[in-house]
């Protein structure tokens, strides 16, 4: 298992474009089938988020965003652990993460921003374990959907 360089392999612009196009297509099909959808991706820029924001608004479904950020020490430890895992799918290394961090445009919420205030679910610490983060996000999602009288599909 070898790490890909910045903008190479899994991280090449063409591969990234295919990945986001596939995510959007799957999200559209899932929503068209009357089900809820969670799209888990980096969404590094407004341009990457825009088609998904438009899809949610066009379908009239709640859009909830979780922004999770981890410090470099936490990220380094996770990447080192992943590099030793033969089942790991990602080939990202610290160089890829640093470049992604430099390019990242955080989502904005509020008047005149990319997201309406109600669409920003949470800005949470990336130092949480994946299970804790998922639990927190689901709890806030359930609360938000109940408040909007939107049904949750299990």
What is the SS-derived class? mainly alpha
Q: Percent range for helical residues?
A: 40-55%
Rounded mean pLDDT is: 80
Q: Characterize the main sheet.
A: 2 strands, parallel
Low-confidence segments, given as residue ranges, are 150-154
Q: What series of H and E elements makes up the topology?
A: HHEHHEH
End-to-end CA span: 36 Å
Q: Give the overall silhouette.
A: globular
Please, how many helices? 5
Short overview:
With 154 residues, the protein is mainly alpha-helical. The protein contains five helices and two strands, in the order ααβααβα.
How is this structure best described in words?
The protein is mostly helical and 154 residues long. The protein has helices at 13-32, 46-59, 72-83, 94-103, 130-147; strands spanning 65-69, 120-125. A two-stranded parallel sheet has the order 1-2. Helix 1 packs parallel to helix 2 (46-59). The longest helix has 20 residues, at 13-32. The model is unreliable at 150-154 (pLDDT under 50).
């Amino acid at each position: 298992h070898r790490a890909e360089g910045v903008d190479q392999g899994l991280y090449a612009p063409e591969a990234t474009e295919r990945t986001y196009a596939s995510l959007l297509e799957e999200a559209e099909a899932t929503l068209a089938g009357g089900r809820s959808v969670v799209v888990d991706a980096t969404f590094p820029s407004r341009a990457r988020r825009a088609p998904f924001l438009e899809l949610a608004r066009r379908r009239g479904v709640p859009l909830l965003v979780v922004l999770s950020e981890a410090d470099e020490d936490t990220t380094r430890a996770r990447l080192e652990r992943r590099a030793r895992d033969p089942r790991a799918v990602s080939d990202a290394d610290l160089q890829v993460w640093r470049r992604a961090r430099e390019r990242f445009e955080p989502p904005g919420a509020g008047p005149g921003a990319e997201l309406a205030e109600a669409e920003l679910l949470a800005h949470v610490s990336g130092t949480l374990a994946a299970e804790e983060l998922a639990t927190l996000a689901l709890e806030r999602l359930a609360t938000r959907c109940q408040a909007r009288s939107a049904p949750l599909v299990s």
